[in-house]
Design goal:
24% of the residues lie in helices and 21% in strands. By secondary structure, it is of the alpha+beta class. A four-stranded antiparallel sheet has the order 3-4-5-6, with no helix packed on it. Strand 3 and strand 4 form a beta hairpin.
Amino acid sequence: EVFTRQRLRQTLEFLRDHAEFRPEMVEIEGWPDFATVEAEEIEALGEIARDFELAVWVTGHTHRDDAIDARGIPEWLARVEEHFAVIMSLEPEAKHIPIRFVKVHGGSPRQDVHLEFDPSTLLIRWS
């Protein structure tokens, strides 16, 4: 079915009130469409995160032709980046996928953090 913020809120309320379960993180794949999303929609998602005291992760897929700024943030994301505390870039190489922090909570990303995603184990490891 189609993702809506209202359904997310209802699901989290049900989990809290009836299943006595409070997730610490929710990952949303395929939403939002960053080309068309309005800032208010992202703000509303942030409100849900604050209300339920959880982290929300969303994904955005880039293409080789995407225009990016000096930090490596695509233009389509840069227009709403103020609503995100952390932005990471996964840049596939031959047999591993380096993870680069592009934006972190309240400051510049550390350059001495070297992580990679291993697609064969689905784990993140120090590199």
